[in-house]
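HUMAN: Ready with one sample?

ASSISTANT:
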Amino acid sequence: MIARGTIDGEPAMVAAIESAFQGGSIGEVSGSKIAAALEMALRDCERGKIVRPVVLFETGGVRLQEANLGLAAIVTLRRHVPVVGVIAGMVGCFGGMSLAAALCSYLVVTKQGRLGMNGPEVIEQEADIEELDASDRRRVWQLIGGEQRTATTLAYQLVDDSEAVCAAV
């Protein structure tokens, strides 16, 4: 979902990944939409009209061929304005989109937000349960949860609720 509006009276663009649709997986069409929205914000910034970009990550991932355009747009856009990412829900942010999240200027997470290249279910499937038991929620959050990602500076700010997310953004 792409929206344009204002944040604190300043022009903004928000790209929200719908976690209820195929676990937030991003295909060619949705990847193109996110990249195009970021590129539009970039063009506005290059013309002197600052647009605050925010990406709400709730995604099981994206194939890297779909991610490349968005990754390039984030890097270029950061020259003009901070790019804010938010990981707040139970799906988390994995795969190629974890690279996009890592490129954000400012990454906000909640305790239940998770960030990693591979999700715990994928790790268990590929490396076996001895490597990681995906049902061991405490261990999973110790490894890739919001608190841990903030403590290791992969995320900038840990927040508790939707009001704190809004304030951080």
